[in-house]
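Today's session is about reading a structure prediction critically. Students often jump straight to the picture, but the first step is always the sequence itself: look for stretches that repeat, for charged clusters, for runs of hydrophobic residues. Only then move on to the predicted structure, which in these notes is written as discrete structure tokens rather than atom positions. Here is the chain we will use throughout the hour.
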Amino acid sequence: MPNRLILGGDYKVTEQSKLFAEQEFARGELISANTTRVGLRTQPWMGNEMAASVGSSNNNDAERLYSNLGMVQRWQIDEHWQSNFSVDRTETLYNTAQPLNLNTPLPSGSGGIAQLPSASGDYTAVAVSLAYHDKLWSCDGRIEMRNATLDTQRNLLLGVQRQLDHGRSLAAGYALRKDDSMTGNTVDTDLRLSYAHRPNDSQWIWFDRADYITQSTQTTISSLKGAKLVNNINANYMPSRRTQIALQYGAKYVLDRIDDIDYKGYTDLFGAEVRHDLTKRWDIGMFGSVMRSLNSGVYSYGLGASVGYKLVDNMWISAGYNVRGMDDRDFSAASYRAQGLYITLRMKVDQDTFGLNKDKVITRPTTVE
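Below is the predicted structure for this chain, in token form.
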């Protein structure tokens, strides 16, 4: 995938409307693209947002000029139920580019409200969601439909969470993605179950998540059917207020069938990281990990160190270097483990961010993530 840099700014015209401009640079082995977007966002009434923009994309010596129009409407049905509806439309005004290979990484889309991915052609995207929340239960569902000149996508997202007691919660989710394109058809599913144990008075917290993932791809020249069971358990121990030790064990079993030939294997990962607060804002850390494939007898190692700085409450930036690197999306999650220099930025957003707990007593001490 290409490296992307986006620079942007907003100008408030009225209390409800803003002008915005964005400039994006995307660079990769197979693509070089510059994209400029300018437009207007407005909130004409409560719960509604509309956006209109014009964008120009220069892609490997080809130019595309397009327009985008998007709208999202949110409804707070009652104290517990809420829903929203969004629609996003992109139309090409001028284009000198040839249709891109679907396997070629693309720069970002038009920047519409629906936030569904864009390609080099026209598309219309529609999404509908419904959510419920009370003290014990939270659940939500979302349906996304996207019709484009290059492909058609259908997505279904379902989730439910149950608060068991103080510090313990159980959650489950399901995701279905169906993609029909000129080159073939793909169906992906992910069934997820997770458990979190975060008691206020314990030095230990831990989180376990299991995923059953399937993929089916059929093209004119090949077929792929795969399934894998992945489990990750992460534990965090605080021997003192200034030191944290994080432990991870991940395991997965994979069974793939490619053109009537079966491939299977078991892979697991052991990882550990230690972080220490130098001051209230600065911290340092180092990590090590080993990933092994039992069937092939292949081992991959990771080793690195980083320095972190708390910009503001709940926002943390770090810079580090990995001497040895490895990358597996089933195990890496939000961590950057590829070899080389890296910079990461993390931000926590929850009910506390918007001041919903100002009148409540929070007993859990605030610590560096």
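Discussion point for the tutorial: The two ends are 28 Å apart (CA to CA).
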